[in-house]
Amino acid sequence: MSSAQAPGGARCAARIFRIGVLISGKGSNLQALIDGLADAPIEIAGVVSSRPDARGVERAQAAGLETAVFSLADEPDRERRDDAVARWLEEREIDLIVLAGFMELLTPSFIRRFPGRIVNIHPALLPAFAGLRAMAQALEYGVRIAGVTVHFVDEGMDSGPIILQEAFELPYHRDIDAMSEGEIEAIEKLFHEVEHRLLPKAVRLIAAGRVSADPDNPRLVRVEPDG
Ligand code: GRF
To answer: Which residue has the CA at smallest separation from atom 7 of ligand 1?
Structure first.
């Protein structure tokens, strides 16, 4: 929604595309959005954390972004918690909700409230290794090619239509239980490098109106290439 054509052909003032980012942890993907969208007509209009102690909240505040914490510890009823999150996002007129390391399943009523307007980043080549511990699942399985997926969110677990994927080769690694903290961090870095490129790219494409569902099969996502 970067610009609009008014009836009669006059060009409306460019409208900034507004995103809300949901996090639970370190917020390195949030940081990638903050840095990677700085020159785009896209505003991070709010950051929601499911945990008060998430490092991502500090990152958001350091960037001058509005933040709110909606934790299940404060409101254990998921319907009510997610309704409060939805209202907070609606008040900020969010165009797109970006799950950037949000480690909880959202209720079906929340997802139905924002049809086709929620995306998630997942550190695996879906449909392989859905769910929690995706990176560990891939390492334990012994895959040689790992990857990252950005997809629309539906009511299943990491099962929505795929927007972007990127694969990379995994170096040889030992059994995950035998790996040192440093070895695990080195592998995590490989995933993060791809995530931090792919997520801002997907948001830019959506904001530019270059991502659409195939009318014949909404499972398939059409992405208009550059130029
Ligand atoms: C990322 O690997 C993301 O794919 C997964 O959770 C992790 C969050 O990392 N869903 P961060 O909080 O963005 O650093």
So the answer is: 101
| Active-site residue set | 122
For 116, the 3-state DSSP assignment is: coil
Each residue's pLDDT tens digit, 56-106: 999 999 999 999 999 999 999 999 999 999 999 999 999 999 999 999 999
β-pairing, 217-223 vs 211-214, is antiparallel
The C-alpha atoms of residue 180 and residue 197 are separated, in whole angstroms, by 27
Contacts of 136 (CB under 8 A, 6+ apart): 176
In this structure, what is the dihedral angle of CA atoms 142, 144, 150, 155, given to the nearest 10 degrees? -30
Return the C-alpha torsion angle 132, 202, 162, 126, nearest 10. -30
- Residue nearest ligand 1's atom 1 by CA: 101
Q: Determine the 3-state secondary structure of 62 from DSSP.
A: helix
Our answer on whether the CB atom of 200 is closer than 6 Å to any ligand 1 atom is no
Token pair belonging to 197 = 């490129």
pTM exceeding 0.85: yes
**16-32 tens-digit pLDDT:** 999 999 999 999 999 99
* Cα gap 69→46, rounded to integer Å: 11
Is residue 122 lining ligand 1, measured as CB closer than 6 Å? yes
Per the CB < 8 A criterion, the answer to whether 33 and 72 are in contact is no
Instruction: Give yes or no for residue 55 CB within 6 A of ligand 1.
Output: no
Protein residue with least CA distance to atom 10, ligand 1 = 101
Residue 160 near ligand 1, beta carbon < 6 Å: no
